[in-house]
Amino acid sequence: MDLDLRKLRYFVAVAEHRHFGRAAEQLYIAQPVLSRQISAFERELECALLVRTTRSVELTDAGKQLYEEAQGILASVTAAVQRVHDADRGAQRLVVAFSPGLHVSDALRAFTARHPDVETDVVPARWWEQDAPLRDGRAQVGYLRRPFDDTGLRVIPISREPRVACVPVAHPLAARAELTSADLDGQRMLDVPRRRTSSLEEKFELVASGHGIALVPLSVARSYSRPDLVHVPVTDAPRAEACLAVLADRRQKLLRDFLEVATEALRHG
Questions:
Q1: pLDDT for 193 beyond 80
Q2: Quick one: 149 and 48 in the same domain?
Q3: Which residues are CB-neighbours of 1 under 8 A, at least 6 positions away?
Q4: Second label for 72, Cα 20 to 30 Å away, from 62, 170, 189, 235?
Q5: Any domain includes 38
Q6: Sign of torsion, CA 35 61 97 161?
Q7: How confident is the model at residue 244 (pLDDT cuts 50, 70, 90)?
Q8: Residue 216 belongs to domain with CATH number
Q9: Which residues partner with 231 through β-bridges?
Q10: What's the mean pLDDT in 233-241?
Q11: Is there a domain that residue 75 lies in?
Q12: Residue 54 belongs to domain spanning
């Protein structure tokens, strides 16, 4: 079946608001129309996406999966439309995806100084699928942190940094100057295999509320600093590697120039 993008956008609005009325207001359509469109969408997909009650709307497992998939689908469509408009006006654009805590601004400034006629933009890379913006066309280059799926990618190592344990200020480990992995034995860890959270903000909120400890790169801890959390170096934890990545079959001069400039700027920034 063909996926109806209009209905997908309607579904995303309901999923984000968890309320038909507020979603309808955002979409500038009547609530009964929105309800009918979502019901039609569920029939087309042959599965329930939402559980409706008198007070709220919750996502089914299928709905949660579709909402996650929709982020990339809609972003990819938006990026494709932007490329069409760029081609229509003869513009060149370079889009860089970046992982949480990594800063690509020095590289972009250096590149713009060399190519002032090229428009640049950035898109965030979600930590559990950092390579997705490269594969779905939203970005031509990624400034990413391992691990990620590097199949079919050309990868240029840039830097390595220590990892720290993020703990609540009242946690017994918060007063330590440094930790080892053995110190974390028996602690509940909020890591990728055990719990995928939608954002680092959510992960740190869980840490602050006592749900566990997060082991993260130092730059991430610094970027999301908050007074109710402490980050303590873990001396024997594997260092986090940051790198530039592009699709291996992309050889355009613009990309080569950016990689050259970015490698120099980021390694010595």
A1: no
A2: no
A3: 44, 45
A4: 189
A5: yes
A6: positive
A7: very high
A8: 3.40.190.10
A9: 166
A10: 94
A11: no
A12: 5-69
Judge if 155 and 167 occupy the same domain. no
pLDDT digits (tens, 9 = 90+) for 16-37: 888 888 888 898 898 888 999 9
Question: 184 and 227 in one domain?
Answer: yes
Asked if 145 and 195 sit in the same domain, the reply is no
162 vs 169: CA distance, rounded Å: 20
pLDDT per residue over 128-177, tens digit each? 789 989 988 889 999 999 999 999 999 999 999 999 999 999 999 999 99
- Report the pLDDT value the prediction gives residue 202, as an integer from 0 to 100: 84
Identify whether residues 155 and 122 lie together within a single domain: yes
Residue 51 shares a structural domain with residue 99: no
Closest Cα partner for 216 from 266, 207, 39, 186?
A: 207
Helices first, then strands: H and E counts in the chain: 9, 10
- Is 113 a member of any domain? yes
> How many CA within 13 A on the CB side of residue 14?
31
Domain count, the chain: 3
Of 155, 144, 153, nearest in space to 102 by CA? 144
Task: Kindly provide the residue ranges of all beta strands, DSSP E only, lying in the chain, ordered along the sequence.
Answer: 50-52, 57-59, 92-98, 118-124, 141-145, 153-161, 163-168, 214-217, 229-233, 240-247
The SS3 assignment for 107 reads helix
Q: Can the peptide bond before residue 193 be classed as cis, meaning omega within 30 degrees of 0?
A: no
Lookup: tokens for 119? 């428009």
Same domain, 130 and 192: no
Q: Which long-range contacts (CB under 8 A, 24 or more apart) does 197-206 make?
A: 200/100, 200/127, 200/224, 204/166, 204/229
Please name which of 144, 149, 15, 140 lies closest in space to residue 69, comparing C-alpha atoms: 15
Residue 95 has a pLDDT of: 92
Q: Are residues 118 and 251 in the same domain?
A: yes
Distance CA 122, CA 134 (A): 12
